Amino acid sequence: MTVARTICLGFLAVIAIGTILLMMPFSTSGGTWNNLIVALFTSTSAVCVTGLSVVDPGSYFSFWGQLFIALLAQIGGLGYMTTTTFLILLIGRKFDMRQKIAIQQALDRPGMSGSSQVIRSIIATTLIFEITGVFLLLPAFVPDHGWRNGLWLAIFHSINAWNNAGFSLFKDNLIGYQSSFLVVFTITMLIILGGIGYQVILEIYIWLRDRILKKTTAQVFSLDFKVATSTTVILLVLGTIAFFCIEIRNPATFGSLNLYEQILVAWFQSVTPRTAGFNTIDISKMTTAGLFITIAFMFIGASPGGTGGGMKTTTLRVLTSCTKAILQGKEEVLLYERKIAISLILKAVGVLVGSVATVILATILISLTDPTLDFIQILFEVVSAFATVGLSTGITGTVSTAAKLVLILTMYVGRVGVLLLMSAILGDPRPTRIHYPEENLLVG
């Protein structure tokens, strides 16, 4: 039982428990036993913080069902190892070496020291931002739905936004609040901060603390911080401009809105594919160009160490830096005057190849099971599932049972990670002293 297998089986166990809970009569609004596929799909989508749903969560599930979805999304966002480690801390047990290694691999940390402090800071950060999100959303939801329903709506949407899950209790998702600056600002900030990574948030906190205390020592930001923040800002700006320019003449999305609403919607549409799943426009009515841009943003995803999925921003930067180095005739890959190790480059290539292969295979399978669907709809749904986004063109509930099972598997692969899953299947690599001769090969 390797660490990778422990993490993968842990996610499967949580999904199984969630499926059983969502099948219970008290979890549905009708008070009847839930359909197995619906319960399994919803549980997988919640644990994998995706947000895809074959039913309307707000009307199909009771309060208890909605509560289970929120709890599953919370566990999925924190990660199996973070959640179990926090429970170990609560009962007062100490970590052994195996648990420290598991935390290191699950959080992609460089070392094993300070594991308990890291877990405590992650839990504290999560609670602080989610509670802040609840208070910010209350003025928007309470006037429309009353204190009781408004409070639950604020809690549910804050949890889903921070964990990049994307489940909404409104039938039209957040389309009814597309012109509300408070809702758009709160949801997008929770999505960005939740997906940018806990290490980045910690470095921002240390920088602000030193500024307030007026410390003379300068804060040295890590390479992870520089890459994650710069790439996120670039993608958000480019995405906002791209969606605004492409969809502004589409009367079904941007065309019927005023300039203020168009900017808000363009900003929201730039944020949500990475990788939350909320929407303030009807995705099915977007232009083909808009759908392809959304697919690209979904595939890139969030940053490592956060609650989002996808290929990750750091992987994108490593690959683009490799391309830049080749074009400039260099033999070293540099990022912010730092040399990137060959092992990281190989890992980035592995993530890209594994991700593309998963998307292609899932797309082919659904094309075979549901041949009447358009290719762009299938590709959009598959990338949304793999990148744990949750956006949909509206076909999730209408696809065949076989296609739903393919999407369930795709969501699981996207959440645990292609490399981690392959490591769980193949086992830990064995060291070898054999070295083979080097030879050139025509490439490109």
Quick summary of this structure?
The protein is an all-alpha fold and 444 residues long. The chain has helices at residues 3-23, 36-47, 57-60, 63-78, 80-90, 97-107, 115-162, 181-196, 198-213, 223-247, 259-271, 288-300, 313-327, 342-369, 375-386, 401-416, 418-426, and strands at 334-335, 338-339. Helix content is 64%, strand content 1%.
Word description of this protein:
- With 444 residues, the chain is mainly alpha-helical.
- It has one domain.
- 64% of the residues lie in helices and 1% in strands.
- The chain has helices at residues 3-23, 36-47, 57-60, 63-78, 80-90, 97-107, 115-162, 181-196, 198-213, 223-247, 259-271, 288-300, 313-327, 342-369, 375-386, 401-416, 418-426; strands spanning 334-335, 338-339.
- Strand 1 and strand 2 form a beta hairpin.
- The longest helix is centred in the first third of the chain and has 48 residues, at 115-162.
Descriptive labels:
444 residues, 2 strands, 17 helices, mainly alpha, two-stranded antiparallel ribbon
By helix and strand content, what is the structural category? mainly alpha
Order of helices and strands, N to C? HHHHHHHHHHHHHEEHHHH
- How is the largest sheet built, in terms of strand order? 1-2
Through-space gap between termini: 41 Å
**What is the number of domains?**
1
Helical content stands at: 55-70%
Helix count equals: 17
CA gyration radius, whole angstroms: 22 Å
